Amino acid sequence: MVPASAPAAGALAGGIRQVKAVVCTRYGPPEVLQLQDVAKPVPGKKQVCIRVVATAVTSSDCYIRGLNLPFAYRMLARLALGLTAPRRRILGMVLAGQVESAGPDVRAFSEGDQVFGLDRHRFGTYAEYVCWPGDGVLARLPAGLTYSEAAAIPYGGLLALHYLRAANIRSGQRVVIYGASGAVGTSAVQLARHFGANVTGVCGPASLDLVKSLGAAAVIDYTRQDFASRGERYDLIFDAVGKRKSAQALRDAGKALAPGGMRLSVDDGTPELRASDLAVIGELAGAGQLQPVIDRCYPLEQIVEAHRYVDGGHKRGNVIVTVAPEA
Known about the structure:
By secondary structure, this protein is of the alpha/beta class. It folds into 2 domains: 12-152 and 292-322, Alpha-Beta Complex (Quinone Oxidoreductase, Chain A, domain 1); 156-265, Rossmann fold (3-Layer(aba) Sandwich). Helices cover 24% and strands 28% of the residues.
């Protein structure tokens, strides 16, 4: 990717420091993302300014960038996000980094704190610095994890935890995770196992060993076998990839439900994501009970390639973008 013409990073323009960021210039393919120099953000009274070390390219980032939504929702999305380009031009909703400064009304964090988190509304993590609310979905970096590993936790971990709780998952239940090798799926397999469920993971042939290693009692290659036709009955069928990809494959999944069983999709409802839950997931990761799954890492300068890879639909776990050296 060739950086757009702009003043050198760190240069002063009217007293404002310039920093590197990837800007979404319009809706479209990965090439609409451009590396530019932008004004360094300044935290408000209730915000923290975070030096981003690592972020992640999530499926949500790609949907927003490409406006890859059903036609009926596309105009509503433009009204909400921006007509021709996102109003918040710097995408990215996941980060791991270090607090550089905090506003006077922030109590939870202070300068130097190592943090990780997620913000589905403010975005901004495809940049060297971002300002987020100090009371947002932020937590301290789990002990023993790198920034890249920490950045692989919030998106899939929080969504998986929300939906498993919504399903009232309990020990001894039989659970199917459809799309078990993605960011949400790899977390869902591990969290369901943590709650004591017997997990069956459904994924592609290249990911069978990975899903098995994460704690699935059984794994099914969706290209060779329909799990709903095996005669097994499950208490929960969780679609971790979303209805746009799963609708056809799961059209007969209801016949595989046990009496009183539930079908749930990552597209259902609006998840409530909380900092307290992020801290819990971080503790599990720090204790080795939740493994951050990273498929590939790209430097910020290769964000186009990272988006192109995620668009391909075959990533395993998370695609991480390193913004600054881990040290």
